[in-house]
Amino acid sequence: MNKVVAGADVAVQDIPSGATLMLGGFGLCGIPENCIAALVKKGVKDLTCISNNAGVDNFGIGLLLQQKQVRKMISSYVGENAEFERQLLSGELEVELIPQGTLATRCMASGYGMPAVYLLAGVGTEVAEGKEVREFNGKKYLLEHAFDSDFAIVKAWKGDTQGNLIFKDTARNFNPMMAMAGKITIAEVEELVPAGELDPNHIHVPGIYVHRIFQGSDYEKRIEQRTVRKRGNAVM
């Protein structure tokens, strides 16, 4: 099976309007920049996006929100995006906010082929409304269902032509578990190498989970918030 495609436009060409997408990254760290740009260009609508956050106004998923291509966001944090806030308050955007650990575990469950998991987070809060609660060893747990996503779009540091992926530092974040969870997983990488060149001991996601891979380009790698110490205040 040849998994290598020419670029982002080809990789996302069959993603239809109304699809449910997982998008790796945390803040603006490790996001699939090229694939997001290709989706904006393609003009698909009514997307359900599962992501830790919604990017910022002019980058990441924020670009899709600007074009009103997102119908629903499933996230744990969305506080850096004014356009997101405007669409939420106006009723244009449906939002499901869930605890970050629950988001991660529902991704993991999907990748492991588990239909649902019982979790402590959210018991006794609004998160629990309408959900099954069971008690184990004297503690109450919520039944949370695994995500059902049509596509997962992730970004890695290195990959090979068989789809094996290596992530760098904090850009690893949600990318591995989302790569495992998508029915069809698309990976963009900074460096694509021939099969066999990656050290098997360093691979974070085996190629069995990846269906398409390409070498991306022109990565901006923006910083969501930059905080620096004022000159003269350095601690010696």
Describe the structure.
With 236 residues, this protein is of the alpha/beta class. The chain has one domain (8-114, 147-215): Glutaconate Coenzyme A-transferase. The protein has six helices and eleven strands. It has helices spanning 8-11, 33-42, 61-66, 82-90, 100-112, 175-181; strands at 20-23, 47-50, 70-75, 94-97, 116-119, 133-136, 139-145, 151-160, 165-166, 184-193, 212-215. Strands 1, 2, 3, 4, 8, 9, 10 and 11 form an eight-stranded mixed sheet that branches. A three-stranded antiparallel sheet has the order 5-7-6, with helices on one face. Strand 1 (20-23), helix 2 (33-42) and strand 2 form a beta-alpha-beta unit. Helix 5 (100-112) packs across helix 6 (175-181). The longest helix is centred in the middle third of the chain and has 13 residues, at 100-112. This is CoA transferase subunit A. Keywords: Transferase. GO terms for molecular function: transferase activity.
Helix/strand order:
HEHEHEHEHEEEEEHEE
- Provide the residue-averaged pLDDT: 92
CATH architecture: 3-Layer(aba) Sandwich
- The portion of residues assigned to helices is 10-25%
> How many distinct folded domains?
1
Report on the biggest sheet.
8 strands, mixed
Radius of gyration: 19 Å
Query: Would you give the CATH topology?
Result: Glutaconate Coenzyme A-transferase
Distance between the termini: 57 Å
Global morphology: globular
Give the low-confidence spans. none
Annotation, overall tally of beta strands: 11
Question: In CATH, what is the homologous superfamily?
Answer: Glutaconate Coenzyme A-transferase
Q: CATH class, please?
A: Alpha Beta
Number of helices: 6
**What structural class results from the helix and strand content?**
alpha/beta
User: Proportion of β residues?
Assistant: 25-35%
